[in-house]
Every structure is written in structure tokens, then in C-alpha cells.
Amino acid sequence: MSARPTPRRRRLAAALATLPVLVAASGCGGDQGAGDAQVIDYWLWDSSQQPGYEQCAQAFEAENPGLDVRITQSGWDDYWSRLTAGFIADQAPDVFTNHLTKYPQFVDLQVLLPLDELEATADLDPADYQPGLAELWQGQDGHQYGSPKDWDTVGLFYDRAVLEEAGLSPDDLADLEWNPRDGGTFEQVIAHLSVDANGVRGDEPGFDKENVEVFGLGASGSGGDNFGQTQWSPFTGSLPTWTATETNPWGSEFNFDDPAFQETLEWYYGLAEKGYMPRYDTFGPSSDSYQQFAAGRAALALNGSWMISSFASVEGVELGVAPTPIGPSGQRASMYNGLADSVTRFADDPEAAARWVEFLGGTTCQDIIGESGVVFPATPSGTEKSIQARSEAGIDVSAFTDHIEDETTFLFPVTEHGADITALLQPAMDAVYIGSEPASSLTEVNEQVNRLFDYG
Amino acid sequence: MAISQPVQRPSGPVTAPAPPRGRRRKDDTALALLFIAPAFLGFAVFLAWPTLRGIWLSFTEFNLLTPARFVGADNYLRMVQDPVFWNAMVVTLQYVVINIGLQTVLALLIAVLMQRLTQSSLVRGLVLTPYLVSNVVAALVFFWILDTQLGVGNQIIAGLGLERIPFLADEAWVIPTIAVINVWRHVGYTALLIFAGLQAIPPTMYEAAKVDGASEIKMFFRITLPLLRPIMALVLIMTIIGSFQVFDTVAVTTQGGPVNASRVLQYYIYDMAFGRFQFGYASALSVGLLVVLMVVTVIQYRLTRAGSSDLA
């Protein structure tokens, strides 16, 4: 994942991932004494991207004798706690992969160095990257705190065989439409793809919604911790006017009290009541749409482009990806998120660290990452390489890339108080998903969120 | 440091009366201090100082990386008005009641059975085995056993033709489930503590009772339970304090959810500090927990007269 597996679901993976990390870290410790080269510590959380960045590090070291890049990977949850601990104990890496939900807080904590004040990254040009990516990493103070490395959008993963069995073809998924009243053709399709224990489909009489074998649409929790990125954001994003904040980045006024938003959430979580999507407690908090898909319990999985290789590796699946459905606005929508590399104020040699950051965002490394076919690199040429790599592997990724070409993306909401907002939204949206609170309860939560900004 | 003061005090009364026949009694103070020093140092560095600093931080706004700012009682005012804090208090109390209630009854039962029924050290050892498993591992294992779809536990339930139970994903089930997981892990240890207390009851009492024709049940209520009181008081104080501090099981399985159903106080404090960087407010919450624990302990101590024994 280039990004955003939600914390709770990744916790187990993170716990398990610690083992190899410890081994790797101790291994690295041994290597350290080998030369007098200056070591640049680089951290990332996605193990599937590590091989690509190892290649980049080799290329960088060849160009920069005397500099050694040491890469440390840890699972999502551990990653952020280790980073926090590192900042406190003065043991933080020189450079690390940063996330939009986290970086405003790091700016507040004064642990990031402005890239525009470091020689190698001073002339970072937003035009070198896919539109909008570099701007996301500009702080309110006008400084650049991250150098774009990749981007992602979301799409609907499916298994061709499952579609065929249901009498559908990939074309049937190409132009789905949804609306918050009856769910449109999108709801018809997921109803048809839902199958109960007796083999009755969701759109047939006698469908037992309490005993569903295959859900039409997988679920990854309530989405309260990531603005519904892989849950409801394609739907709320394709409402005629709704946006999460009044402006983005650096909004300070949230719109979770908008009736259209609440109506959409009511409809989305309501799919679980109809048996077309798992209920909150069907799989428990450990499961996401990828796991449900892999276990054959979900026909469609709304998930991010960083998961393509994971989905492609599910055995016995002929993978296809459909674009998100067209909404009341007349257009599709996908959240558009991007990661970046940041230099910490704990860097032994900030200028050397900046050179590594420049290299990570430069053509050589971006193309290497593109060819590895795991994520979409931030530069257009890297993106192109990535598309090629996937199409050689037989995967059509246009469902993700069309959003960029058609400009049907909206940016991940970048605001201050990210952790506090999550602490308010997560339980509130869980409650709506569970059904213990109506969507209108979000009006009060919205006030609480907005109050965070009043007090600064 | 404060060490210089105690040096004076104990030596005062000892040296004041004239030593008999000019032979000076050897002064052990220096040696005593030497022996006390390591423990005192540990106490000062790892307990006293952090506690004092924690109390100071509770009056500040502090994010750990930039200097603390004094805000007076703001954090405490916020605490009193914070619905999530009160919810955490209620959730924690629910947990403590279920956890301690179940654990104490079971531990007492096991301890008595160990004493009255078997002398086998194998059985006594087996009772303790869950305690050898780390909290996190125990929580992870139960997390998978109780998983709604994949868990062995739920597959058995489904196999019996019953409806699957979302043990850790349902607001009503989650706290009882976490409490029972921890009972499973701790009951052997608690039983062992009580068992040690049972060993102190003279067997002659039981013999005398038997001669008088008392049944096992009568002996339990008339002899075992009353004479166990001091050790039960100690066990209760220890387990209740431990129970209030429940954290790891929640951190591994539910992270406070669903909604706020398992957001126990300790987890709320942790998330506030290390997730939200509000160390000042988290410190105030910790002081709140400290006060609650002190009150609970004092009440318990009084109620159970833990300091005195009926045996002497």
C-alpha cells in the first residue's frame, strides 16, 4: 500500500511485520561499520515498495560516493509510533515517507525541515509532478514540507469469473450510476452480485439478508479515520456540491452537517441493512474489503490503486477494475491522495538528506518505482512506466488513471488537528454504520470538529 | 539530595545517652543508608519524580517536542466536561466489576480445590500456565479465536446451529469479552496467591470442625473464608488496581471501539498522549486515575481491615 491502510485493520499486520524489521535493523547495524560513508536513514511503511526503493538507493549511492542510504521498513501502526518515539528520543530518521493525515501535526511540532530552505530541494518544481500533488505539501506558512513521490485513486476491484456467473460482463460495470434515493444501477448490480446461503441473489425474491454468503460490495469499516477514502468518498465526492471542507488544503470548516452528505451516508451504510454489504460486526474490525474479496465473500471491493498488486496476487482470480460510479453531479469521483518524502530536523546532514529526497522525486528513481509496478509514481513519466508495467502484467488500470485525465478527482482533505478529528469522527461514524445513531448525529460531531479550529 | 537529612535523625537518639563504659556502640546508619540507597534511588527516579512531573504537566499544555505552557486548571476543567472521559470511567468500572467479580470467585474456587482436593504440583502448575502467556499474545490469540467469521470459537457456535456472536465487534459484548479474556489469563495467579493464604490456616481447625461434623461447604464459609480475609484484602487491592489499568488487551483487539464501547481510561490516556500529542491533558487524566485508585484503595483497606488478622 502506498498509503492509508486504516490503523486498526493494519495493527496485526504491523505487529507481525515488526519481526522482520527487528531482524533487518539488527542486520543493518552490523553493516554500518563497514565503511566511513555517511548514512542517510530512510523509513517507509510499505514492504511491497521496499525492493523498488532499495534499487533507487543503489543508484543514488553510485552517483553519490560517500553517502549510504539505510532503508528501514515497519508496518503502518508501528511506523508512526516509532517515528513519534524517534522524534522524542532524537532517534528519528533523516528522511521518511510522510502522509497527509500526519504532516500538519509534524509541522506544528516543528520536526520537519522546509525543503525550500535546503539547497538540493530549493528549486522543487510543482510542474514536474502530476497536477496538485506538490501543492498538498505546502504548509500554511508557505514552506514546502514534502517532495511528492506517488499518487493514488480508488476503483472497484472484481473477479471476471464472478461477474460471468452472475450473467454480467465488465462492460456492465463501466458506466454505473448511483444516487442516494434508490442507489441507481450501482445498487442494482451489487444487489444482483449478493448471494445468500441458499444461492438466492439479492435482487431475487426470498433473499435471506441475515445469511449472506457473498456480499455485492465489500466493506472496510466506517471510514471515519480516513474521510471514507475507500468507503463512501466516491459517493459523497460525486454529489453536486459537497466537499469535506470549505477549502482544501488547510480548510477549517467541515461540512459533515450537510443534509446531502448525511443522506448519502445513510444510503451507503444502509446497504449493510439490505444485505448487499457486510454489517459492521459481520467480519469485525480486523477485516477490510481486500480480505473479504480474497476470501470470496465480496464480489466488488472498493479499494485504492496502492492495492493493485495485492489484489492481483489473489489466487484463482481473473482481476478486473471498474471505475467508481457516476453520481448526481453527472460525474465520477475519486479521492486523490499522494505521499511525499520529508526531511526531519534530526537529520545529521540536512543537505545530504535533501539530495536523497531530490533523487527520490527525480526521473531515475521515479522510473524505477514505475517499472516495479507497485504504485503510481508522482512524475508523469513514472506514471507512464507504471501503467506499462501493469498492462504487461495483464492488468488494465485505466479505472484509476482516467480520473486524472478526466479531472474527476478531489484532494484528500489536509487540515490541522488531524488526530483530534479522527478521534471524533471514528466513533461517530462507527455508530452510524452500526445503526445505533442516525446520520444526523454527525451534525453535532461536525460542530465539535469545527470547534477545534476556533480554539486554535 | 535529601539523603543528608536522614543521616542526622536516626543517629541523634542513639548517640544522646552516654555509651556504657566508654565503649561506643557501632553506628549502622551509614551501612543502612547504603543498603537503602539503590531502592530509594529507583523509587525517586522511576516513581516519585515522574509522578511529580506528571502532576506538574497536568497543569500545562505540552506536546513533548516544544516547551510546556502553564494553563492552570484548564485541563481539569476540560476533563470534567469531557463526555468521552466520563464514558471511559463508566466503561472502565464495568470492566473492573466483571473482571474482578468473576476472577475472585473463580480463583477462590480453584485455590480451595487445590488445597482440599489435590496435592499434585502438576495440577497446581497447570493452573498457572495462562499467566505465563504475555497479555498481548493472549489477546491476539483470543482475537482470532473469537473472530466473527474465521474464529474457531464462532465456528463452533455456528456448528451448533447458533447465531455467530460478534464478541469484539458489538458494543454490548466487547467489555464482558475483554474482561473474560483477562480472567482467563490472571485467574491462575490470583488462585495461587489465595492458595498461599490457605496454607497459613492451621489444619487443626479443619480437623476440629470435622470432629464436630461440619460439612465441606460449612467449613468453607465458617473457617476458610473468615481466616482468608487479610490475604483476600491484599489480593483484591492488587487485582483491582491492575484491573483499572487495563490497556494491552484493548490496544491489541479493539482500540477502544466499536464506537467508544471499550475506550477504557488507560487507552484514552494513551491515545490522547501518543496519538494526539496532548500530553498535558493526558497527564490530567492520569492524575484523575491516580485519585480514583487512591480512593478505591483506602475504602477497600478500611472495609476489609486488611491490616489485621483473625488468626493470632
Automatic annotation (TrEMBL), chain A:
Gene Ontology CC annotation, any one: cell envelope
Coarse class of the protein's main subcellular location: other
Keywords for this protein: Signal, Transport
Signal peptide: 1-25
Keyword Acetylation found: no
SUPFAM superfamilies: Periplasmic binding protein-like II
Pfam families given in the database record: SBP_bac_8
Localization in the cell: Cell envelope
Keyword Transport listed: yes
Family the UniProt entry places it in: Belongs to the bacterial solute-binding protein 1 family.
Name of protein: Extracellular solute-binding protein
From TrEMBL, chain B:
Region Disordered: start-end pairs: 1-24
Coiled coil: none
Gene3D superfamilies listed in its UniProt record: MetI-like
Alphabetical list of CDD domains matching this protein: TM_PBP2
Domain spans labelled ABC transmembrane type-1: 89-300
Keywords assigned: Cell membrane, Membrane, Transmembrane, Transmembrane helix, Transport
Signal peptide range in chain numbering: none
Membrane topology of this protein: Multi-pass membrane protein
Source taxon at top rank: Bacteria
Compartment(s): Cell membrane
One Gene Ontology cellular component annotation held by this UniProt entry: plasma membrane
One example of a Gene Ontology biological process annotation: transmembrane transport
Keyword Membrane: yes
PROSITE patterns assigned: ABC_TM1 (PS50928)
Transmembrane segments: 30-49, 84-113, 125-146, 227-247, 279-299
Family to which the UniProt record says this protein belongs: Belongs to the binding-protein-dependent transport system permease family.
Name assigned to this protein: ABC transporter permease subunit
Species, as recorded: Auraticoccus cholistanensis
